[in-house]
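Weekend entry, working from home. Most of the wet-lab plans are on hold until the incubator is repaired, so I used the time to fold the two sequences that have been sitting in the queue since the last round of cloning. Logging both here for the record. First:
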Amino acid sequence: MIRIGVDLGGTKIEAAALDAAGSELLRRRVPTPTAGYASVVAGIRDLVLAVEHALGQRGHVGIGTPGSASPDTGLHRNSNSTSLNGRPFAADIAAALGRAVRTANDADCFALSEASDGAGAGHRVVFGVILGTGVGGGIVIAQQLWSGRQGIAGEWGHNALPRRPGDGDDVDDRLVPHCWCGRRGCIESYLSGPALAADHRRHGGGALDAAAIAALAEGGDPQAADTMERFYARLARALASVVNVLDPDVIVLGGGLSNIDELYRRVPGLMLPHAFSDRLTTPLLRARHGDSSGVRGAAALWPLDR
């Protein structure tokens, strides 16, 4: 039976069907419905059925989502797509499709994909990072996704950013940014794409998106360069805190901000002063499968022999 991976995003839902060897058979993408929770469930159902109809095969379905299901209640929580929160999302999708469905956090799916046959292949402990509209993380150990007792392993984006005023952070707590989760100073509120753009505006820059800021910095614009230096310093501190706890064999970056080439040159050297070690050799790598890792990892929630 084929495996169908679905990546549920804030603006699009993408599905890909993979054969037993992991080769892609078909990929489809639709806009994420905006009419509420029921429309999202229906949109995923319709997309999966359309893929199966096109291939003439029924498949096992895995879905990567923002947030995750509570192990205690089965209700979705921690999603920045807030219509999912408090809903029995996994059960509702299973009922809509009339079969068992497996779900996991989207960053977990990314990490599983990259650990299996991506940039983290061959490493025992892989920390996968999403730097995009949000900031997420996933942990894979010996090719197995590690979700943890609460099902939140890897959720570094909602730890507080380790702050160092000398690295460009505000020392006035009133200026610490708010996060959608209700807290202030979360890593996500500094290192997501929208957060990078907001930081640029706070320091007198124009209303530009993250890609434009990075391009201006590469072209020598001093204000954009200052914004990116703050970003690199903050990312280095945040990743060093993960190294101090997990000490992974490799860190793999995905999401839109992972496409900034300078990040891989600047950040590794900035991490060492914040690591509790005399050396830091952890590779910082770009995802091999790029935007495809989400759906590939979602499909991988079903083992090949099932």
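Second, folded right after the first finished:
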Amino acid sequence: MSQSLPSGVEFRAMRRDDVSTVLEIIGQHDEDDYEEAKETYRESLEGQFVLAKDGRVVGSTGAEYAEETDNTYWLSWTYLAAEHQGTGLGAVMLVKMLDQLRELEARKVFVSTSDFVDLQKGEVYRDALKAYQRLGFQEEVRHKDYYERNESQIVLGLRLGPDPVHGAQPEPDMRAGAIVGFGEVPEAEDSFAVDWEFAEGGGGSRSQDLEDLVQEAARKGGRVVFASAPSDASRVMSLFKSAGFVEEGRLEDFYEDGIDDVHFRYDVR
């Protein structure tokens, strides 16, 4: 779906001297993304790109590899300067970013957005959502009340590699899961997420451990606790279900073809 760039428009890797302008653009749209991007750019600009028009940066995008997957990526902050919205440059930037991912032989790419409604501006991310959908992204998971009450997280996915070859299901991974902690979800209000890892040579955590964690979240004023696990991790999946977590959706073929990322939630209040 590649296309040539309009006259005077350049798509290139982000440089250090671009960062202040990029952060200004992000800040026009989302204060939380501004703070998170600022910290990330301070550490590295790997995988980050800008769109420039007549020599001036007017947009930014990027992608990050999802660890322990078969060439799965997440799109990072993708924003266009307010004065250039509605010009088609946002779509141009996204197409070029997808071209970069195809060069990396990315198999799938995911992006998250929200259904936030501003009293003055209306549905803030509606145009971005439509832009992703026009390029073929499809909604795969919607976390209700993720960021705060009445603001859900929407996760969309797009397959870039060849269609999967359907065959035998992957062998179940029978390792136990060990809960190693939990914390507040970035950019969210009163939402928590479970952190776990595979237990090496042991029994792992029990459902009571998860129930205790939920109670701790409640004491801290939490509304909801989220978790996720590979679809082949049978014992980990059973652990969450036994503790009362409910499956909310799946990112299809996230880890590799045939192994989804299964998302769970527990509504505390």
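Plan for Monday: verify the second prediction. The domain at 9-159 is CATH 3.40.630.30 (Aminopeptidase).
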